[in-house]
Amino acid sequence: MVVLAAVLFVAAGLETAPHQGLVVDACSPSGLDVQLQLDRAGFSPGEIDGHVGRLTRGAIEAFQADRNLPVSGQVDCATWSELRGFYSEPLVEYTIRPEDVAGPFVDALPYDLLEQAQLPALSYTSPIEALSEKFHVRPSLLKKLNPQSAFTAGETITVPNVAAGGRTPVAGGDVVVTVSTATASLTVKNADGKTLAYAPVTVGSEHDLLPLGTWTVTTVQFDPVFFYNPDLFWDADPTHSKAKIQPGPNNPVGVVWIDITKEHYGLHGTPEPSRIGRRESHGCVRMTNWDALRVARLVRVGTTVVFE
Question: Which residue, 180, 220, 215, is CA-closest to 200?
């Protein structure tokens, strides 16, 4: 397993090779190590790709601030010592289940929203896309980790060992959600100020600035229907009419919609996790589907949401 993992690190083009036994013994973790431990600690780096880029550095800074460490965005010995408390094998084997690849899948996802409204569901486009979201990983990295795989039921593949998810509410208690336009991030903190979740977000563009203020959660909807209203989209086709887009992970708001008291605004998932962190949404707060699910498990009706 050690030899196999070492080969996989090289094949994936990761920043550094794994240490012997895949246990980092000092303060020189690989990019994949860092991203995995951040994910397991509740500080999402967005899509796991094995590199410490802008979103990962943001997660490192948030983790350092939460642990009262010097905030640098770099993993020094003190930071890695804290992160290692969440340590586990970064790469594990997973046997693909029939339901992982059962579909139905969409051959091609149309860009036009009215064309999307003609589909019975906004499903994944392939088993690779479905498995990539399950393990919070960029599809290209999943394929590099498994270059010989056809991604069919019964195959054993190598995947990032991410934190367990789900839709069952957790005992978050009284929490406050804060969305920062300065850092393009969302945090969920408990009454003691401890960070329960951190995620990079897309917070709107120059055409749809985030409405700063304090709001509250009104509903949490899993697998939401998206009601497309072209009047609310500055770049909508003038010939478009209102439409209803069916649920699915490639729905415009992903797998969960967290509604708030500010009309037409909410926190939600996305069909394009690789684009998180860019200023291009239509005003709402967009996260990866897995991060949106994590937040949805922590909030309740009445939870305070601050846009700052």
Answer: 180
